[in-house]
Amino acid sequence: MTNQPRNIAFIGAGNMTQSIVGGMVASGYPSNQIWVSNPSPAKLEKLAHELNVHTSHDNAEVAKHADVIVLAVKPQLMADVCAALRNEVADLADKLIVTIAAGIRIEKYRDYLGANIRMIRVMPNTPSLVGKGMSGLVADDRVSDDDKAYITEAFDGVGATLWVADEDELDILGAVAGSGPAYFFEFMASLQKAAVGLGFDREKARAMVQQTALGAAEMAIASDLELEDLRKQVTSKGGSTAKGIEQYQAYDIDKISDDAVKAAVQRNQEMAKLF
Ligand SMILES: NC(=O)C1=CN([C@@H]2O[C@H](COP(=O)(O)OP(=O)(O)OC[C@H]3O[C@@H](n4cnc5c(N)ncnc54)[C@H](O)[C@@H]3O)[C@@H](O)[C@H]2O)C=CC1
Ligand SMILES: O=C(O)[C@@H]1CCC=N1
After folding, report:
1. Could you give the maximum distance between any two Cα atoms of the chain, in Å?
2. Where is the signal peptide (predicted)?
3. How is the beta sheet containing 8-11 ordered, strand by strand?
4. Which residue's CA is minimally distant from atom 1 of ligand 2?
5. pLDDT at residue 208 above 80?
């Protein structure tokens, strides 16, 4: 890291924490400066064994070690987890608080943790595990440039980062990029099923689907062309792709994506009210 690594504690050792911590360690973040807590031991044992990070079942204990606390529990549990931290950790205002939870607004965390906290909201995604994450970030106005540079570098280590203007934008980024891997996996699984339906075994069908997805994503990143133009390059006039694309368009794939993203944004907004 260019920025001085800080002691960082993750509260909750679920899918997202495992992805981020795995990616951070792989990108060179010192594992002896990472703490992770979780109520049940199985995930902690795996993290301690594979990544050599510090673990505990006690949230307050890991928080006390940390300069940076990452809240990584489900939104439904956030109020209770924060209430316990507030009771047990005296100097929360001196620490940088990062949350990766969908929906819940910074203002709400001030109720949960105290009015004087400084906070960054990050909306990551699970490909962070393989260093290909996409994380959106937004900070309150108490967060310093140093804090922002540090957290940007930490999440750049597990993929790409994008600072957004406000929390409304973060809800949208979450609905596109946070949830996005699920949309792509759903689509890839459906292509796999189509190939299996025509006689391929699952393994071969998966191999061709995942390599094609990887190739398409890498081409999109490498190219200056619009995505629509990349699609056209594959679609020879009178050829087979044109027939396949006609089917997607008949089901109005744009509307499917539009509806999906709007539904996910709406749920983020609901969670902001609920928790
Ligand atoms: N999974 C994803 O793709 C993404 C998730 N997020 C956010 O990340 C957060 C975590 O999501 P996941 O990792 O998917 O959930 P998860 O359910 O896999 O992980 C949550 C973890 O918290 C632990 N936990 C439960 N009660 C706890 C407590 N009192 N103290 C400490 N840990 C406790 C659970 O045992 C579990 O290991 C959520 O708020 C979600 O909105 C954000 C972006 C992407
Ligand atoms: O489904 C969720 O609520 C979280 C946020 C983005 C991905 N997973």
Report:
1. 70
2. none
3. 54-56, 34-37, 8-11, 68-71, 96-99, 118-123, 133-139, 159-163
4. 179
5. yes
Instruction: Take residue 269 and report the two structure tokens written for it.
Output: 């907004």
Q: Name the closest-CA residue to atom 29, ligand 1.
A: 81
CATH code, residues 8-173: 3.40.50.720
pTM over 0.90? The answer is yes
Q: Name the class of domain 180-272.
A: mainly alpha
Ligand 1 center to 77 CA (angstroms): 9
Band (211; pLDDT cuts 50, 70, 90): very high
Q: Which ligand is nearest to the CA of 98?
A: 1
Taking CB atoms and a 6 Å cutoff, what residues make up the pocket around ligand 1? 11-17, 37-40, 43, 59, 72-75, 77, 81, 100-102, 123-126, 178
Output the six-digit token pair for 200: 């391929």
Say what the alpha-carbon torsion angle 252, 256, 261, 264 is, to the nearest 10 degrees. Answer: 160
164-204, pLDDT tens digit by residue? Answer: 999 999 999 999 999 999 999 999 999 999 999 999 999 99
Question: Which residues make up the CATH 1.10.3730.10 domain(s) of the chain?
Answer: 180-272
| 174 among annotated binding-site residues | no
| pLDDT over threshold 90, residue 3 | no
Tell whether ipTM is more than 0.95.
yes
